[in-house]
Each structure stands twice: as C-alpha cells, then as structure tokens.
Structures
1.
Amino acid sequence: MANLGRILLVEDDPKDVELTLTALDEYNLANEVVVTHNGEEALDYLHCRGPFATRSNENPAVLLLDLKLPKVDGLEVLQQIRAAEKLELIPVVVLTSSHEEKDMVASYKLGVNAYVVKPVDFHEFVNAVKELGVFWGVINEPPPGSLGKTSRL
C-alpha cells in the first residue's frame, strides 16, 4: 500500500486521535502524522508560526479536521484555509461526530473535500479511516502544484 505524505490530524479527543493513528498505522497509510489538538494550533502549524515556525513549509497531503474544537472551531479553521492562497488547495476531510445538517452544509459551502461522520464502533472507525487513507493516498490525484514533489511519499 502506498503511503500518504504528511497528514495533519486536528482532533481534541485523545481516544479519537489514538483510533485514527492506529488505523493509519495498521494499514501503513502515513509516513508522518502531525496531531494538533485545537483549531488555533492547527492554524499555527499551517502558517508555520509559533511552535511550528521552524517546520518545513510543505503543506500536508491531507488534513483530517474535527469540527468541535477548542479555541478555534473546525469551520473557522476551514474558512481560513480556503481564504489563504498558500493553503487553499489542501484536501480537507471533515472527520466529525456531528450529524447536524447545518454543519455538513456549512462545511461544503466552505469547500471541504469530504465529510465523514465518525462511526462509534471501533472496527467501523478503523475501516472508515483506512478507506479515507486509501482514497487520499492512493486513488486521488492532488491539484497540480498544490503539493511539493517531496510531499507525496
């Protein structure tokens, strides 16, 4: 199975972080997963500022984004990503427990690439993450010039 480039996981629930990392690792879908625990930290990472000021400026291959986040919520993170020329083409997958239609509609209006409601069952969750990884890492072709050559591993 081909590996994705760097994945940015924005998730405040430690159990969901652990499940997602387990699923990606189990299927060898990521060489590197960066975890941020709130929207502000995610934006700092994406804009290479604060504790991430010295990271390489390559965009992640895909961003897995929860909506219900502390400090800056997921919809605001998505809005800021789509408004920033350097970030606007990053594939963003909302991975949330929200079944609310207003959240789904708002996400798509802001340009999300996919909206996935987290399954409660462990095996279903692992399979959902595996399928996301296969799609974004193997099947999907990123927009030309959106990712540096070294981002896709």
2.
Amino acid sequence: MDKIRVGIVNYLNTKPLIYGLEKPPISNQIELVGDYPARVAEMLLKGEIDVGLIPVAVIPRLPSYHIAGNYCIGTEGEIASVALFSEVPMQEIEQVYLDYQSKTSVALLKFLMKEYWGINRKLFMHEMKNTGRK
C-alpha cells in the first residue's frame, strides 16, 4: 500500500497537531512532507501531497476540500504575527514586500491596508533565494 503524503508545517505552533503523526502506528502509514505554509498549500494544489495543514486563505483555490478533525491553528482575539514595517509614515509607503511563507498573513495584511489604514500600494511577493550560505 502506498503511504499517504501529508504536508506539515514545522513551526512550534503545529507541534501539537503533528505529534501523533510522527509516532507508530500512524507514522508507518504516512509520509510527512514539511515546508512553510504557502509551499504546503501549493503542493496540495499541484497534487504533490494528498492532505495538508494549509492556510485557510487557500481554501477558495481548491477544487474541493474536506476539513479533517476539529483542530486548527487560530485565535479568537488579537494577534501579533502580522506586521507592516516601514521607515516612512504610513501614507508615504509606496510599495510593500509580502511574506511568501504565509498566504493567510498576506490576506490579513491586504485587508488591514484597505479597510483599516485606507491605503492601496504596490504589492510584491518576494521569496528569498537560497544562497548556499549558512
């Protein structure tokens, strides 16, 4: 039997969700594929994995989906994981480089820019390239 390819995110806040997946007997039936959230979502969209812990912002792009379980990484209050840093005042910002690792953070930042701060700026998704340096 082929193993089920499961996309996971190796961040501290995902450890409770993946702990049991790393242990037998489940670990004998699955192959864990770790990456950052946006990449796990892309792997699911391309059929490179069978199931994955993905950002909620990606759900509308899926042809179909099933929510497995009653758990997620979320909040019912304020968060501090989405930030906009600038060396100039908010109204002088001309362009914003977005975090390529989290589609949910990008969606929230876009919402905040439009609805809360009332600004519309050029947005760039910028992925850091591996230079081979450590």
3.
Amino acid sequence: MEQRANAIWVIVLSLLVAYLLAVVPFPDWAMDYRPEWVAMALIYWAMALPHRVGIGSAWFAGLFIDILEGSLLGLNAMSLAIVVYITLSLHQRLRMFSALQQSAMVLALVGLHMLLVHWIRIGTGQSEPRSLLFLLGALSSAFIWPWIFLALRYLRRAFDVR
C-alpha cells in the first residue's frame, strides 16, 4: 500500500514541478522557445506507467493548465488528452526507441499539442493567425527530452514507482 502512495505522490510532484516551470516568466523574445513541460511529463508517465497515467489524468492536467493560463476551459485538456491517447497507443514502441527517436516523437506530439491549441484559439477569436515560429517550443522540448527522460526515470526508480 505504501508503494502505491509513493507512486501517486511522485507523479503528482513531478507534474507540479512541470507546472511551475510552465509559468516561469520568460522574456518576450523567448516566449516561442518555451518547452512544453507538462506535455513532456505526461508523455513520460504515460509511456512508463500506462496503467497509472491515462487520458483522464491528461484531461485533469490540461484543465489545471487552462486555469493557470486563464485560457478557454478545456482547450489544453482536450489537446493533452489526444497526445496521451497517442502515447498510450504507442507506449510499447516508444520504450524501445533510442533517445533520438523518442525526441522525434516528442517533437511530433508536442507539435500536435501546440497546433491544436493554436487552431482552437484562432477559431474562437482569442488569437490571430501567425507564422509557425510558435512551434519552436516543440523543437526545444524535443531537444531537452533526453534529460527529462533520464531525470524522470531516475525519480521513478529511486522511489520504486510501479
């Protein structure tokens, strides 16, 4: 029973750290380069522990982001649920991929998340169409993925999260 409680707390605390990193102020010129910390944490946990982190977890994590950002309620929730659904359907393959291949998948998944959020904001009139430079955040997420993966795997093994 104690191991189960550890698992929940380690996952929740890693998501809280991701939320903190997501709201850290960046200079205006660097906003497009901000990695998607919460999406990467959810991708890792859905890949490593698909029986613990699923579509419902992604939905609630996305709702919390919507509340933090003050954006349209359900916007990030829907987008992250789709990303985690794809991750869950590919989790066994993702585990076998090299770090470079996993980074490419993170680029695609985070890019999908960012595109969905951008398109919905345009559709609801919250944003204007702009260049695809906002996808640089997906590129920076893919670049730092190997370190995020190693850090979260170390945390999972150190606290015996199963």
